Amino acid sequence: MAVFTDGYFTMNEDEAIEFTKAKLGFFPADAELTCKEIGDGNLNYVFRVVDVNSGKSIIIKQAGPVARISDEFKLSPDRNRIESEILSLQDKLAPGFVPKMYHYDPIMNCCVMEDLSDHEIMRGALMKHKQFPLFADHISTFMAQTLLLTSDVAMGHKEKKELVKSFINPELCEISEDLVYTEPFYDCPRNDVFPGSRDFVREFIWEDRKLSLETAKLKFEFMANAQSLIHGDLHTGSIFIKEDSTKVIDPEFAFYGPAGYDVGNVVANLIFAYVNALFTGPSDQVEYLERTISEVIDLFKEKFLALWDENSVERTARYEGFREYYLDSILRDTAAVAGLELCRRIIGLAHVKDITSIEQPETRAMAEKICLTAGKEFILNRELFKTGGDFAKAIRQSAAVFSK
Amino acid sequence: MAVFTDGYFTMNEDEAIEFTKAKLGFFPADAELTCKEIGDGNLNYVFRVVDVNSGKSIIIKQAGPVARISDEFKLSPDRNRIESEILSLQDKLAPGFVPKMYHYDPIMNCCVMEDLSDHEIMRGALMKHKQFPLFADHISTFMAQTLLLTSDVAMGHKEKKELVKSFINPELCEISEDLVYTEPFYDCPRNDVFPGSRDFVREFIWEDRKLSLETAKLKFEFMANAQSLIHGDLHTGSIFIKEDSTKVIDPEFAFYGPAGYDVGNVVANLIFAYVNALFTGPSDQVEYLERTISEVIDLFKEKFLALWDENSVERTARYEGFREYYLDSILRDTAAVAGLELCRRIIGLAHVKDITSIEQPETRAMAEKICLTAGKEFILNRELFKTGGDFAKAIRQSAAVFSK
């Protein structure tokens, strides 16, 4: 029998069942538990524990001692404390859009949460050309509520500073600082560039001094701008979805950073799905994704401003023109981060299946060039993106350069 | 006999002597100690303990349970932990420009430090029209070293985030947020407006919607931009000076904020001395102060850039053009904060003697209008201030409007 109080160890499937019996009152006494490790992420082991009799199930997510993405990243397992706290907080701020949290265990560095096996990971679903007409509404609510309600606009400033303090997250931030803001923009050995795109990457990205200067500005803003409690990794692989439900998972990168970071990640990852659909999907999938990108932006703006009027506690937040100035700055950061994400997923260490699954090499290279062209445009001209239509237009124009 | 281990209480002079004997090995065994409470600040009790035999002396600074500035501000006595840690850190970053720290006592909430009684408070010295030719050199070194060396330019980003965390300072920041960024810019009951300036304040400051919008932007930057470990209250009342020595004291407002905040406070408080000298001093004092303001900016820039080249550890910090972009942003914040300080010391709760000591009411009103005119110019046109000469010119022009 494993003991769960003496110190941390990495569990196997049997030990995850023992842990469930020892620590949780979730299942009935006569439960017949089975367990499978289903993790395909990079940082954690994920166990699904099911009671064969009742059909009830839970997920146990345990931090490995070393991030699985690469042995070069050493991560403190404290990130699962951050994850359980933030899921509880997000569930209060935007109820219904994150999995329920049942238990957090600081010794085993794991948390136990709602099983979402009736949902599927959004990236895979989009690659199968499924459509989710409620997604733009759901994700814009989630982002407007979590981002506005944790900012100085809507929180007591002392209370907000205590939250900033408890979500300082040096190790996970370092991963983003390196993989998103730095390595993709020079010929870094850790990059992973598709041969068919290499010349284009060198000329169009690495040799552009104006572009690298902008990435430096953005990196320093990412490191210093404690604006909102952001998810920090809000791509379509961090979203569980089904027709009538959207659940945001994996908030272990959460910290106080620029609000536009989350919105930009959602936009960029919808663009990867859009580019995938351009070459592999029916034209109505392309239209659905373009419309969704546009709606995410416009609904986010609308909800953010409405929440501002209901929730602003800060006197100066009600000064004429400030609301619009503030929202503009979030849209500028949204464009910039969408651009960074579009570049880093093509050039850097961590790719996305939407693009790597395109088998024909010339087609894949074309898809990558569309992403990089849109990405650079978003970074360099980030001040100009104000509406969903502005974003959709930049994507269409980049696509038009390479596809016919 | 008082006991210093059971719990916090506010000491009197006799108890400060007992504390010295019980806790410190600083004085010889046969010392004959005398003590006087010499605090004139708002937040602390300050005891000077002297050995009549050896002439050796120390300062004990004890946090009162309530800030003395007003019963409305309730402050945690933890600020003296912050003070002792930051003085030790500043002494490493910029040796010789802060008092030596001998002891910190977490129960009594006090710290024991070097006695600087052979120095004088700079504000008073400038009002006596003394000149300190080394000041610009000293303070620019102090600021360049403390501000650059605690930033993401020159620190490991993980290490910097741990510092951000340990210097989160909600209560003292709230004072600045209220008294510097908010109350002076509307007709707040807590303001203290000189009758001869009231009409001007209403029309020129309170009724200017463009100005209030800019203060909102600046307030949100102050609350979110964790750029450098700043002193946070670097006015001429926080500087002990003598001909060959400059010591920065009272860092209890320290936290990670915009680097330009400290530089702007130094500039604004030199401007108060300049305006005082305009009406009460010899013309060479006016020239000395104008030259000093200009030198503080230009020497800060020069030293900051040199330190950047020697100490930058961040790859993107070396991208072409980034160093200049970053320094420009600090100068912009410097101008903005100088402007806020110029307004808030005239309109808000906490005034400066440089101005309030001007006895003739018309002259005082004129002095105040010069400060407010320069202040508004600095805030509205903050992007345009790039050199010491730019700052000096704005001051001269504001003075020329009202004095002849």
Write the layout of secondary structure elements.
Two copies of one chain form a homodimer.
Chain A: H1 13-23, E1 33-37, E2 44-51, E3 57-63, H2 79-93, E4 101-105, E5 110-114, E6 120-121, H3 122-127, H4 135-149, H5 157-166, H6 170-179, H7 198-206, H8 209-224, E7 228-230, E8 239-242, E9 245-248, E10 255-257, H9 260-280, H10 283-311, H11 322-347, H12 353-356, H13 361-380, H14 388-402
Antiparallel strand pairs in A: 1-2, 2-3, 3-5, 4-5, 6-8, 7-10, 8-9
Chains forming the largest contact: A-B, 40 and 40 residues
- For CATH, the homologous superfamily of the largest domain in chain A is named as Aminoglycoside phosphotransferase (APH), C-terminal lobe
- What is the count of helical runs of chain A? 14
Note the run of SSEs of chain A as H and E: HEEEHEEEHHHHHHEEEEHHHHHH
The CATH class of the largest domain in chain A, by name, is: Alpha Beta
Strand order of the largest sheet of chain A: 1-2-3-5-4
Number of DSSP strand runs of chain A = 10
The best one-word shape of chain A is globular
| Biggest beta sheet summary of chain A | 5 strands, antiparallel
* Number of individual domains of chain A: 2
Low-confidence stretches of chain A: none
The chain-level mean pLDDT of chain A equals 94
Distance between the termini of chain A: 63 Å
Helix content of chain A: 40-55%
CATH architecture of the largest domain in chain A: Alpha-Beta Complex
Oligomer: homodimer
Which fold name corresponds to the CATH topology of the largest domain in chain A?
A: Aminoglycoside 3'-phosphotransferase, Chain: A, domain 2
Q: What would you call the structural class of chain A? A: alpha+beta
What proportion strand of chain A? 5-15%
What radius of gyration of chain A results from the CA coordinates? Answer: 21 Å
